Predict the structure.
Amino acid sequence: MRARPSFGALAALGLALFGCGAQQASASGPAPTQGSGAAPDFELATLSGGRERLSDHRGKDVVLIDFWATFCEPCLLAMPELDALYRRDSARGFVVFGVSIDEAASAARVRGEASKLGVSFPILLDQDTRVVAMYNPRATAPYSVLVGRDGTILRRQEGYTTGERENLERAVDAALAR
């Protein structure tokens, strides 16, 4: 039986390949792709001690699942923009789940970073990396998945660019209008 590389090693490789770490966000990056199919359901613990289940939002909310890490500079640059979008549209049925891909032992670091950034949307901890494996098997960050009210994946975005907020706003507006 072959030994599997640790999630941390895979995440570091994926993050290195997609510009996370000490690099700044660029003006160009990977384009979003259209989603397809139903979003796999999951339930994760929140940083605040609660639990969030994706299927609890089916039929009523548009959900953005954002995979991020405390050691990923583009992730940290994107978080305030995602929070502004969440605050703008939460009353219209828009939810953001910030899924931390940091290792299980780093919950305190995740909590500190989320607090420093002033993030108001739920931060979820995927300590067994099950959700990362379903949605983001290469463990890249940032990586986001927009899920419609009907539970279908509408859009996937790998990476972060400085002009991405407007594109994401349009996609969220279109999803909320459905």
